[in-house]
Amino acid sequence: MTRIPVVDKRSASQPDAAPAGTTAAAGEPADPAATPVARSSERPAEQTPPDARLAAAEAERDEWRERALRLAADLDNLRKLVDRRVEDEVFRREQERLARWLDLGDALDRALRHSTGASPEWRNGLEDIVRTFDELLGRSGVARVDTAGPFDPTLHEAIAVVPDPSRPDGSIAAVERAGWKNGDRLLRPAAVVVVRNGAT
């Protein structure tokens, strides 16, 4: 009679214990307690203090403000330069246009000075023409330079000096050529004879 071997089911259902020192099989989670925790060698970035960030922002703001002020000043200077050049060019062209009329005025003044021996009617007629001429130029803002006061080097050109005890030194004895101005700008100075007592 054949004997059938008997197997202990309790011992067969339990797997053999893994030898000491062996690792877990692939795909099985490692024991967290047995896994060493890696330490980072990098230090956390240092945070900039709020006061430092505020100071940097204010410095940048001040720099841009200074740039804006300089730019505004440069633009204002450029505008003034352009305006001045335009004004000078307009004045130059106006002066060229008026030069022909001033020559006519000089001719009328000479005729009036040399009309001392003419009849009163002739002289009065010349005076009316000169007066009308001055009024026409006055409508454009052009007027004669005043020669009633003392000599002014900014308005008058001394072409001669004469002694005259009846007049104070520096006064204008005669006007040889009228001066003209356009508003506040001098078109040409008046050519005058100046009194200087004691002159040789």
Walk me through the structure.
The structure is a single chain. The protein has helices at 9-13, 50-113, 120-138, and strands spanning 142-144, 156-162, 172-177, 180-182, 185-188, 190-195. Residues 21-27 have low confidence and may be disordered. With 200 residues, it is α+β, with helices and mostly antiparallel strands. It has a domain at 141-200: Nucleotide Exchange Factor Grpe, Chain A, domain 2, CATH 2.30.22. It has a three-stranded antiparallel sheet with strand order 1-4-5. Strands 2-6-3 form a three-stranded mixed sheet, with no helix packed on it. The protein is built from three helices and six strands, in the order αααββββββ. Helix 2 (50-113) runs antiparallel to helix 3 (120-138). The protein is elongated, with a radius of gyration of 54 Å. The termini are far apart.
What's the topology here?
Layout: H1 9-13, H2 50-113, H3 120-138, E1 142-144, E2 156-162, E3 172-177, E4 180-182, E5 185-188, E6 190-195
Parallel strand pairs: 2-6
Antiparallel strand pairs: 1-4, 3-6, 4-5
Helix pairs in contact: 2-3
